[in-house]
Amino acid sequence: MDARAFARGVAEDALMERAAGHLARSVREVGGRTYGLRVGLVCGKGNNGADGLAAARLLRRAGAHPLACVVDGADTLEGLPAVQRDRLLAAGGRLVADPRQAVAGADVVVDALLGTGASGALRSPYLEAVEALAAAGVPVVACDIPTGVDAATGAVDGPAVVATRTVTLGAEKVGLRLWPARGHCGDLVVGDLGIVEDDDDPAAVVLDDADAAAALPPPDAGAHKRSRGTVVVLAGSDDMRGAAVLAARGALAGGAGLVTVATTPAARESVATAVPEALTLALPAEPDAAHEALEAALDRADALVVGPGLGLAEPTVALVRRVVAEAGLPLVLDADGLNAFADEPAALGRHASPRLVLTPHAGELARLAGPDAYGARASQATGLAERWQATLLLKGPGTLVAEPDGRVFVTASGTAALATGGTGDVLSGLLGAALAGAPERGDVVAAAAHLHGRAGERAAEWVDGRSVTAGAVAEALGPALARLRGRDGGGPRR
Description:
Elements: H1 2-7, H2 12-31, E1 38-43, H3 47-62, E2 65-70, H4 79-90, E3 95-96, H5 99-103, E4 108-112, H6 126-135, E5 140-143, E6 165-169, H7 182-185, E7 187-191, E8 205-207, H8 209-215, E9 230-234, H9 241-253, E10 258-263, H10 265-274, E11 279-282, H11 287-298, E12 303-306, H12 314-326, E13 331-333, H13 336-339, E14 356-358, H14 362-369, H15 377-388, E15 391-394, E16 400-402, E17 408-411, H16 423-437, H17 444-462, H18 470-484
Parallel strand pairs: 1-2, 1-4, 2-3, 4-5, 5-6, 6-7, 8-17, 9-10, 9-12, 10-11, 12-13, 13-14, 14-15
Antiparallel strand pairs: 15-16, 16-17
Helix pairs in contact: 2-3, 3-4, 8-17, 9-10, 9-16, 9-18, 11-12, 16-17, 16-18, 17-18
């Protein structure tokens, strides 16, 4: 995008001035004033550092007191960084050699060390500069990215800046929406440089509340239970009955008009008691007989959820594999549904579903795609989605959804309160309801993931986040969806 702007006659110097303006504005906002604001700027020798030096000049012109340091030495600068150094000095600005001196006594400090081209662990003198920023004990504004994070993958390989605000320039970077990098960004804002065009193909899309609400519309006034979507949930076992309960609750709270839970005879009794709104189906233990019973339930179903709490007994694995190979309706494969393919991941690509959704957490993805797959999810997700011809929903902080056509969505919602057993089961049921209600929408899976994150946040408002349970997340889905639509969804039922 930069190169395209230069080719049409935009000067690189002009883009840098725009970037510096955004950075200086955020420094003033974070500092709460301008006149007399003491700002310490710690700069690298590249264009990121040049943005910092230009911002120092603009801050000085506005009445602040900036003090800047180029950690590699001001005399090492070349090109535009050298031009910005000279402009700052000509305007009466000051440079110091030690980053600790630049940040001493500052009200706000600026990280202008490294930009998007940096990756891997920091080395001297940048490591010491990051330590100086942390030791200042005041708000940090990061220029483009917090130094030490990977803007492409979200990885943090060692010490890194923890910013109060990150002013990312031109457009958002995928890695800044993924954890652990997201936890270093603070308030993430975009400094528009005018280089993005309407027909640019984004690397990823971040859904907001309005996007999610549009993808999960309320039922029509004339709807009946089957028109709202019928979901079959193949889940639960004698030892893990709760997973079937939670998946059923997720599907019902997600808007499904009719939910049938197919499970073991013993688990069926638990589901019927805990979720009276759901129908239940007791499956025989023998795989062929179980498949025959399940087929009858699928005849009028709009979506199928497979996996929560199933276990990995040999007959169960055989049933799951056959269902995935033969079921010709939208299908969500979660938990032990995924683990059933751990010894033959390629078989996932031989499914019959018109829309298969895979929902692995880090451990499940490692079993399917190798130990490094989750850490490299930003770069590998689209390839895996294409390989399996499936929508890949990679659960965790900053849930990422990759479609087989190359589209990528990143959720902006969620909370650590979701890191508790059973919340993934709720999500699988919610996804089933979303697919049953709007299977043609390309963003419906990402929208459901966004809603699930908002439900976790809502549940954490009702109690301390440490006390949130999966059941509370299921209960919060309705209030969270109401909030997406701009209404107050109320509190938990008593």
